[in-house]
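Anyone able to model this chain together with D-serine?
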Amino acid sequence: MRREDPELAGLLDAEVHHQNNTLAMVASASTADPSVLAAAGSALANVTAEGYPGARYHPGAVNFDEVERLAVGRAKKLFAARYANVQPHSCSSANLAVLSALMAPGGTLLGLGLDSGGHLTHGSPASVTGRHYRAVAYGLDAAGRIDYDQVADLAARHRPTVLIAGASAYPRTLDFARFRAIADSVGAYLLADISHIAGLVAAGEHPSPVDHAHLTTTSTYKQLGGPRGGLILSGRDHRAPGPDGHTPLFRLMQRAVFPQNQGTPAPAAIAAKARAFALAAEPAFARTAHRTVTGARALAAELGRLGYRVLTGGTDNHMVLLDLRDTGVTGVVAERALEACGILVNRNRIPDDTRPPLVTSGIRLGCNILAQRGLGPEHMARCAALLHDVLTATTPLNETEFRIDPQQRARLRDRVHALCARHPLPYAAAVQAGAGRRAGAGRPDALWTGVDL
Ligand code: DSN
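re: yes, here you go
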């Protein structure tokens, strides 16, 4: 590729450099191990085989069948689940498969509102879930925590077929047992979407929903450090009857993913999931998950000490949400100013936000990648100071534009680079450690797939 397509090769090199030299605090992001990248870029990508292991609609799945069985077995073991489907191309696809299996169009679902931290596929009007179903939204109480009394009240009034427990921007522990009690009180199915916290669940840092929810879904690329993709799990309810009163849920889900919502699976991505599930079962993963949570807690405390309004006053997971309305900068200005200095966070609407989603009044921070870099609670005063120094150096010109003195910006970037250099991304560190052992090792392109390792 370097010889034949230097344009693309150059961009891939640049991306490696960019990731290693920016302090990524996007709460939904993590970095994948080189072996995960290698599996995702492997020759299995050439296999076309619809269906499931042993029951394909194409020939040639001899190795893919084994890989998919391995991925399913590892997912079940990692989450102590009794059923796993590793084929969804994303958690959005997984959620659509679950909802379509459990409800006909027009059915009622109850999920956390988008403005309260929910996900698009939990019934937002911007998603087909909000168009095909009668979506009712629950919200937060005055302290910014899920209002379980409201969930129970809305469930009793609207009798949803599916209740969704899960969030994209919520920093507190989800009480899955309480959600299940509410679902049972109205005969609803409980779907737990753990996309943001799957790594913490796998590592025992957050209670597992697998035996509380009828079905659990997750992304595989967030905290699990896997490839782009999704996963469906079920625990003690995997044989519970579906809406027809007899078809077990696990059978419904097999059909719902293929052929009802997806065609050909992505075999290389499934191999990468298998690899990620194995890594997530190792003690090093649990140590990183613990560092993630303790780091986020320390970051929230430091930012609070610096005068920022931390939503809910802290965090139980990897995520910290800031209300910036006191600071004079909008969410998008904060995001862009921080990016200009090498720090990645994303703008986020906050409860009662009056600004549109492209502007917002808040930001969402996450500690997944910081923890992967080895940055834990003892480093959070420094990270918080960097964030604060960028935000105080930022002069907003309007809701979307800003100015930072170029010299000050260069100094801030240098501080970010120094921190990144001292705490390289694990995959970059692994390749650097291999430098000299083999021709080519240590070159940035060794990182594209990790194959030089
Ligand atoms: N759901 C989006 C997020 O939380 O950032 C993307 O995964």
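DSSP finds 17 helices and 17 strands in the chain.
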